[in-house]
Structures are given as C-alpha cells and as structure tokens.
Design goal:
Layout lengths: L20 E8 L6 E4 L2 H10 L9 H17 L2 E7 L5 H18 L1
Parallel strand pairs: 1-3
Antiparallel strand pairs: 2-3
C-alpha cells in the first residue's frame, strides 16, 4: 500500500456496494498479528448503535428508524470486530488481513 498518485485517493462520485463493516476493537499489546472476529447479530447491533452519532438529537421516531436501518445493515452485511496489536509498525499486516477477509467474504457471496 503506497501512495504514488494523489488522484487515486479521491472520494467516490457514485455509490458502491458495502461488503463488510469493521468495528475497531481495543488494541492489545499481547497481540502479534491483527485478528478479525465475526460478530453475532446482537453483538453487531450493540456495536453499530454504540458507534452511531447524534442520538441525543434524534426524536423517538428517528431513533426507531435508525434502529431498524442498523438492524437491516447487520442482517445483510457481515459485521466484524478488528483486534489490533498496539504497534503502528503492523499497519501493512492490518491492511493485508482486512484485504484477505474481504476476498473471503466476496467469494462467499
């Protein structure tokens, strides 16, 4: 993963399919390599709700709608927890593990 041309690092102008959601877990100094765990539907919902923002500003109807939309997301897209070593030197390894997991998901679809 090297940045050679800034033009390749632009926002996408059209919608693309979402293959997976990765929740960042706590860094662990005992880990030597990143670990990806699949989350159950209840675990995925808990993490998605916790990581949503602006809940204090939502009406009760908007909260219900957000809950339904996150539930639909968790039912249709794999939600994974990414556990990381506490070491920035492992960034390439993290990239490789995520890419490998995405390829695995893509072949199962």
């Amino acid at each position: 993963m090297q940045i050679k041309d800034r033009e390749q690092w632009q926002f996408q102008s059209q919608a693309l399919p979402l293959i997976a959601v990765y929740i960042l877990g706590k860094r662990d100094s005992n880990l030597t390599a990143p670990i990806i765990n699949s989350l159950s539907l209840p675990e995925a919902m808990k993490h998605l709700m916790f990581n949503s923002y602006g809940r204090a500003l939502l009406t009760s109807q908007q909260c219900r709608q957000e809950f339904q939309e996150l539930g639909q997301l968790a039912k249709t897209v794999p939600v994974r927890e990414l556990l990381l070593p506490d070491n920035l030197g492992s960034l390439q390894q993290i990239y490789d593990v995520i890419l490998e997991n995405l390829h695995l998901i893509h072949t199962l679809v």
